[in-house]
Amino acid sequence: xxxxxxxxxxxxxxxxxxxxxxxxxxxxxxxxxxxxxxxxxxxxxxxxxxxxxxxxxxxxxxxxxxxxxxxxxxxxxxxxxxxxxxxxxxxxxxxxxxxxxxxxxxxxxxxxxxxxxxxxxxxxxxxxxxxxxxxxxxxxxxx
Length: 143
Hints:
143 residues; mainly alpha; Serine Threonine Protein Phosphatase 5, Tetratricopeptide repeat
């Protein structure tokens, strides 16, 4: 009887875990659809809802950073990107986070700071990426 109870408990746990992953993906996909329609605030709310369910879901943070950037909230975007880089250094799309971060810093006209996110360099970012171009532009525009 005890074995049956433990088996049922494990099944319930795994069912909940899969259901939560589905909920996260649905929320992020809804946010992406809103972003694509130009409703950046609505998208950000969806991403925050996903983050509220699972603070380790890096994709929700990344998508939020993109909506923040496109809506002109450069400092907020940079803050989220920095958080992702600190907490999720192995995130599968980390190079895109660097691009968002560099772009946000460029939007803030922070020429010196644009260079710092790319210091990990070639191991993390492809040599032709937008972040490297932004850094080059920033260095050339320095007084």
